[in-house]
Amino acid sequence: MRVICKSFLVLALGWLSLFAGQEGSLQAADAPAKKYKALMLTQSAGFTHGSVRRPKAEGDAPQKLSASEIAMTQLGQQTGLFDVTCTQDAASDFTKENLSKYDMVIFYTTGNLPIADADKEYFLNDWLKQEGHAFIGFHSATDTFNNYKPYFDFVGGTFDGHPWGAGETVTIKIHDPEFPAMKPLGSELVVKDEIYQYKNYRPENVRVLMSLDMSKCKTKRPYMVPVSWVKEHGKGRLFYTNLGHNEGTWTNPTFLEHAHQGIRWALRLEEGNATPNPELQAKLQEEAKAAAEPAK
Fold first, then answer.
1. Are 237 and 266 in contact (CB under 8 A)?
2. SS3 of 240, please?
């Protein structure tokens, strides 16, 4: 069902302090020359996250939105940056004709979505490469089309498990503190949220903005685990953040400002270096390996 998110029913969410010791709020920015149009797809063809699960509509009552949809609606309204159309019907709404209405696509999705091959090819090979177009991936955008190489080559990687579960607190290193989406986060981030590890991941294709600090995580692995990255795609841009599993994340102002600034960068309203940084990632790989080795 498609929902135009210019007005919404507020969903009462319990507060979860996601960012230990962090305080944040949406930062005022100059009004954009235009109001952008976003298509937010939250369909689950695999696991359904609580953050995209819509409350069951009763009778003829309007369809309520999920936590992530409400958050993106509010973000667009409060910043004046964009209007969002929220949909969980990819077959009907994710088409070449419909994509022409939008500047930005947001995925919080799972599985093999029912998108026609021609529309997938248009999206990846044409729409995304057009000047000013933006792709925003939250959390399980990397657990989508896991066997479709053109997609995982584009998005940057494929879900390969989550040793760091939704209840585990982890420490994240910020590698590019001057990048717009990193500025709200400080020098490091302590969060309670589910963190993915990846396959089909190529360091030479993305610029990693933050990754797990294995020396400070209870669960350790001898490899680098990126948490957010960016890339240029033709004349379009991609911003991905692994955060967003827990519903409480979507009410946290620091996370929302992280998302806001990532969106501004992806829409070319802010500048930030998207040059891939494989050398840094190789160094992080060695640091993770050392942190995971038993003490002698």
1. yes
2. strand
pLDDT tens by residue, 247-289: 999 999 999 999 999 999 999 999 999 999 999 999 999 999 9
Place of tokens 């529309």: 119
CB atoms within 10 A of CB 47: 10
Which residue type does 74 have?
A: Q
What's 212's DSSP letter?
E
Q: CB of 175 within 8 A of CB of 280?
A: yes
Q: Nearest 5 degrees, angle CA 275-CA 281-CA 284?
A: 145
**8 within 8 A of 73, measured Cβ to Cβ:** yes
285 CB contacts (<8 Å, ≥6 apart)?
223, 224
Q: Region 84-94: what's the mean pLDDT?
A: 98
Neighbours of 101 (CB within 10 A): 9
Quick one: CA torsion of 286, 289, 295, 296, rounded to 10 degrees?
Answer: -70
pLDDT (0 to 100) of residue 30:
62
Provide the residue ranges of all domains of the chain, joining segments of one domain with +: 2-15+33-292
Architecture of domain 2-15+33-292: 3-Layer(aba) Sandwich (3.40)
Cα 93 versus chain centre, distance: 20
- The DSSP letter of residue 221 is -
C-alpha–C-alpha distance, residues 122 and 105, integer Å: 13
What average pLDDT does range 116-144 have in this prediction? 98
Contact 178, 229 (CB under 8 A): no
Q: Helix (H, G, I), strand (E, B), or coil: what is residue 153? A: helix
Beta strands in 216-294 (DSSP E): 226-233, 236-241
Distance in angstroms between the alpha carbons of the first and the last residue of the chain = 57
Residue 60, judged by CB atoms within 10 A of its CB (0-12, 13-18, 19+), counts as exposed
| Strands in the chain per DSSP E | 2-4, 36-41, 82-87, 104-107, 134-138, 158-159, 169-174, 188-192, 198-199, 207-212, 226-233, 236-241
